[in-house]
Specification:
With 409 residues, this protein is mostly helical. It has one domain (2-344). Helices cover 86% and strands 0% of the residues. It is built from 18 helices and no strands. The longest helix is centred in the C-terminal third of the chain and has 33 residues, at 376-408. It is globular, with a radius of gyration of 21 Å.
């Protein structure tokens, strides 16, 4: 059962990765680098809003839904809170674009902004469906969800060729909406739950607030490069620079999603039974293999992978791609340890590790970007994961000394 669930999620992420590669290959062939940069900045803005709206609830769904006495109440409460946050943050984004340079000034139009809100809402529902379906043991539905979204995104892109960066961006939200509808029609247990009496309970949200908060910090660290940096690059540099960064980051994040699938199943299964050590050991072996294979793959075929998109990416993005993948073993170790902290409910240790990652990432970006420009992002990402590993090592040493003192006493 566990292997089937992991296989479904890995296959779902694989389909998402392949469809994303095809999607961006088509976009790179038929759109300018400037239009790709604009699209990536809008996708990043939506992803940032969706991320902030979910507030770490992704891990909360996996950790608490499987064992919740009232699944419907917890599901509806967390979803409504996320939707409310999303609408508020879309309003903040509208105020933001009023003050941004001309690159995003077209978003002041009512039609563009209304479309942005609707597309962002569809992306939010698409994202939170994965942990919800996993907690309901409906990983096959996750596979259907990603397959429908991947196919429809490419189909929609074919219809909007030549209509600019916003058209590229819109295909993500439209395909996500189609995917959500298909899943709700196909997943009978989830549909039955949603058709039952739906009630909002503030207490259900407040009880898991601390857990969601520490996971929010970690997800913030994982998503800052893809969510915020393209917008920064468009604002401070050129649209082309956002495109040159986004493609290698997209490749890295898609590969990292394989580890995410493994850890998601580990967290959900650990919530159902006390003995999770054997499953954790197998997950650790799989993560170790990914840590070896990823850097080797990038070193050997990184330039060829970028040439798949366009020659310019091989010229300007190769160093960023190599830095990201060479840092993957550090990233994978941090994420595996944080997953174990979630299972063991060691939230203070979790907060220290993830908080160090966020602070060091921002600090290194501030220090390095004036000197290295857009290349600073890759180095800052690697250093931040190394800092997280140092905190893990320090926690291990402190815990070991405490155990030794207790044994001596």
């Amino acid at each position: 059962m566990v292997f089937v669930a992991v296989g479904n999620l890995v296959l779902a992420n694989g389909i998402a990765s392949i469809s994303a590669m095809v999607f961006w290959w088509i976009a790179a062939r038929f759109y300018s680098v400037s239009e790709i940069g604009l699209a990536s900045s809008l996708i990043s803005a939506t992803s940032l809003i969706v991320f902030l709206s979910s507030y770490g609830f992704t891990s909360s769904f996996l950790r608490f839904l499987p064992q919740a006495e009232n699944r419907n109440q917890l599901l509806v409460s967390l979803t409504l809170v996320s939707v409310a946050f999303l609408l508020l943050l879309c309003g903040v984004f509208y105020l933001f674009v009023l003050l941004v340079p001309a690159n995003l000034s077209f978003m002041n139009g009512a039609g563009y902004f209304a479309g942005f809100v609707v597309l962002s809402l569809s992306m939010l529902l698409f994202q939170i469906l994965t942990p919800i379906l996993t907690s309901y043991d409906l990983t096959k539905a996750v596979l259907v969800k990603n397959t429908v979204q991947g196919i429809m995104r490419i189909v929609f892109l074919a219809f909007v060729l030549g209509h600019g960066g916003f058209a590229i961006y819109s295909t993500n939200g439209l395909s996500a909406a189609c995917s959500v509808v298909c899943v709700l029609l196909a997943a009978k247990p989830l549909r039955t739950a949603l058709c039952a009496r739906l009630t909002f309970c503030f207490g259900a949200v407040s009880r898991i607030f601390s857990f969601s908060s520490v996971n929010f910090i970690n997800v913030l660290h994982m998503n800052i490069p893809g969510l915020l940096f393209p917008v920064i690059l468009v604002t401070l540099y050129r649209q082309e620079d956002a495109g040159y960064f986004y493609i290698p980051w997209m490749m890295f994040s898609l590969y990292a999603s394989i580890e995410g699938a493994i850890l998601s199943v580990l967290l959900a299964q650990a919530a159902r039974k006390e003995d999770y050590r054997s499953l954790a050991m197998r997950a650790g072996v799989a993560v170790g293999l990914l840590s070896v294979f990823g850097p080797l793959l990038c070193t050997a075929f990184g330039e060829d992978l970028l040439l798949f998109f366009r020659k310019e990416f091989a010229e300007h993005s190769l160093s960023t791609l190599r830095i990201l993948f060479l840092s993957f073993p550090l990233f994978a170790l941090v994420q595996f340890v944080l997953c174990m902290k979630n299972i063991q409910r060691r939230l203070r240790d979790h907060a220290m590790i993830s908080g160090t990652g966020v602070v060091s990432l921002v600090a290194m970006l501030v220090v390095l970007m004036p000197r290295l420009g857009p290349q600073a992002i890759g180095y800052a990402w690697g250093i931040s994961n190394a800092a997280g590993c140092l905190v893990i090592a320090a926690q291990y040493m402190v815990r070991r000394r405490r155990l030794q003192r207790k044994a001596q006493a």
